[in-house]
Amino acid sequence: xxxxxxxxxxxxxxxxxxxxxxxxxxxxxxxxxxxxxxxxxxxxxxxxxxxxxxxxxxxxxxxxxxxxxxxxxxxxxxxxxxxxxxxxxxxxxxxxxxxxxxxxxxxxxxxxxxxxxxxxxxxxxxxxxxxxxxxxxxxxxxxxxxxxxxxxxxxxxxxxxxxxxxxxxxxxxxxxxxxxxxxxxxxxxxxxxxxxxxxxxxxxxx
Length: 206
What we know:
Elements: H1 4-9, E1 19-22, H2 31-37, E2 47-48, H3 56-65, H4 68-78, E3 87-95, E4 109-116, E5 128-131, E6 140-144, E7 151-155, E8 162-163, E9 169-179, H5 182-201
Antiparallel strand pairs: 1-7, 2-3, 3-9, 4-7, 4-9, 5-6, 5-8
Helix pairs in contact: 2-3
């Protein structure tokens, strides 16, 4: 499912924090099955994979993302020991106007992995920006289209600012995190699950 040659060959950038962008990370033979088996999501929020249904192609990708080969590749690239760290995987399918605001990830996350599944992205917003600060969305070092087969991986630091211009509607992605411990995983899963269920009930798209 994953093209590990692309992952190994991707440049690790360190300005303003460690991150890399991997294009064409999905094997071409796997794409049709992944798109077919991606969860059908009609409400906003970052949703634990346990809360959605999906097909075998999507499960195969989840298995690789959470597997030892991918873990070893990311550990080597970032120079971190990830062996004992638990993971958490969520999906997004629908964006609201307020999604994408500038933020850093929680300190209980060590690495964030994003994979995009949007075959033909034509929106003005929704391009992930690697930012220099927490106040100016236009002060960025790189802007990354959320196109099918693009992966972004970054180390969670005090200054890992990122965000994107608003977009409303469909925008498909997976987020997988290596977490500091089991307590962090339990906390994140609880709040993501609760948030997803509330957003499903009260979806107003704004």
